[in-house]
Design goal:
Layout: E1 8-12, H1 16-28, E2 32-36, H2 39-47, E3 54-58, H3 65-76, E4 84-87, H4 95-99, E5 104-106, H5 111-122, E6 144-148, H6 152-165, E7 168-172, H7 175-184, E8 189-193, H8 201-211, E9 219-223, H9 228-233, E10 239-241, H10 246-256
Parallel strand pairs: 1-2, 1-3, 3-4, 4-5, 6-7, 6-8, 8-9, 9-10
Helix pairs in contact: 2-3, 7-8
């Protein structure tokens, strides 16, 4: 048997002195260290074949490097979404919305806490890049799906489609009704229209971020008006044109909660 793989860490920060300090600390603790001081350097490391157990990234209002790299990772290395530890004296304004409870932020002056959180993050089991909500439902039950749309004809048609595809569907006609359902029950996957009069998809997403952050990875959106609203309001989540790509939509839902068989 060969030697076990060393834990790997990417250190991403604009401060060269802090990078030097953290490099020495983590190398002494047995980590294989990669360094980046720019977004391009970070993307190069993240795009490679080398596995990464944790990313320690600086992110504050005046140096948004960590946040920009995190946004890139949500699009290109989704399995690393909970592998980041952010270093900042104060959380940036968009931190909670973007990170959605997946990662912690630690002061640059608390070196011992950075080490503790990074090592705890590195010990987490690896996630699949393609099945963020992986489950097999080997007991024969069907995964649960919450469907929200304020158009009754679309709601009925989508519910029938998704039921026939293998999900146990709960259909509601507004974002507020979806929030009420989520407050009472946990669903394996959530499909929501973005534009609804009585509570939008954005309201549903923000409620999940605040009260059910572990379910952020389970939500998918449809919209009649493709644009930046959903992408900015729910970064990293899939958005499909309503009625135009049913096959792609079903495939995205299957990746989160695949029906049995």
């Amino acid at each position: 048997m060969g030697e076990p793989r060393r834990r790997s860490i990417l250190l991403l920060h604009h401060d060269g002195q802090l990078l030097d300090l953290l490099t020495r600390v983590f190398e002494a603790r047995g980590f294989a260290v990669s360094l980046a001081a720019t977004q391009m350097q970070a993307r190069t490391v993240l795009s490679g074949d080398r596995p990464l157990d944790v990313i320690v990234a600086g992110w504050d209002a005046s140096h948004p490097l960590g946040g920009e790299v995190y946004k890139w990772a949500l699009e290109h290395r989704y399995e690393l979404r909970d592998r980041f530890v952010f270093v900042a004296d104060e959380a940036p304004p968009e931190f909670d919305r973007l990170v959605a409870g997946r990662c912690l932020i630690v002061s640059a002056f608390e070196t011992a806490e950075i080490i503790r959180v990074a090592e705890a993050t590195a010990r987490r089991p690896a996630r699949s890049p393609s099945l963020p909500g992986d489950a097999s439902w080997s007991d024969g039950s069907r995964p649960t799906l919450l469907l929200a749309d304020d158009d009754p004809l679309v709601l009925t048609a989508m519910a029938e489609l998704l039921e026939s595809a293998g999900w146990a569907v709960t259909a509601v006609d507004s974002g507020n009704a979806a929030i009420s359902a989520l407050d009472q029950q946990e669903f394996d996957v959530i499909l929501s229209d973005w534009y609804m009069a009585n509570g939008s998809g954005g309201h549903v997403f923000q409620w999940i971020v605040t009260f059910r952050p572990w379910m952020v990875d389970r939500i998918v959106f449809v919209t009649e008006r493709l644009g930046d609203a959903a992408a900015q309001g729910a970064p990293g989540r899939p958005v499909f044109p309503k009625g135009a790509d049913s096959a792609g939509l079903v495939e995205a839902l299957r990746k989160i909660a695949p029906p049995r068989g």
